[in-house]
Design a protein that fits this description.
ABC_2_transport; mainly alpha; 12 helices; two-stranded antiparallel ribbon
Amino acid sequence: MTTLQTTFDPHARRVPPLGGFNLTVLGIELKRMLRNRRTIIFTLILPAALLLSFGGQKGWQDPAGSGNVAAYILVSMGLYGAALTAAACGSMVALERSLGWSRQLRLTPLNPVVYILIKALVALVMGGLAILAVNATGKLQGKAEMPTHVWVLSAVVTLFCTLTFAALGVFVGYVVPGENAMQILGPGLALLSFLGGVFIPLDQYSDAVRHIAYWTPMYGVSEVARSPLTHELPWYALVNAIGWFALFVAGAAWRMSKDTARV
């Protein structure tokens, strides 16, 4: 009687192309976010409501760059809404960790870099919806005035600026357990927006507060997002935006590599 022996070659396992990235996984992530009522409020309702809450205040028609003050505020509100939405998408990893889903993914051939890329793409889509909601509200409101190409370019630049906060959301999601992530990110981003000149221009602050604001994450991206309108982008604002983006991405990658336990 002969005995059939087989050997297992660990290198024979086929690695999926593109590190496991596929449109099915991306579609599932998007559907999951769109079914979340809290996300819809952050994405579509809150940013538009903030824009409307400012109303047609005195000075809205004053010139600002290629447009007026209303356009300046519209771009700022779009950035805040998209940043909040992108951070919420990124912070979903906290809930996934609490449910053990991240540990399940580590057993699959899905590359960690691809996992972060999928999160970034979802954040971009959701952030784009927030920007679209703000711009549509501003258009219907009829107060904002700027050339069409500036309007489009501002929206596109703002969209890419939100990647910074998607990375921040992922980083916080790996540091803070469960749903506590957004309880920290929500008030934190609001405070950073006030301090970084999103809600209130920095020239309205004292010199001491203004010099602190130059180091905050919101300052650089807000200047970048509004640069197509204002035609002004200080070099230190660009360094600020790139520096914080690199820091949050590095932090998210570091925490993900250290994540081995179920929270």
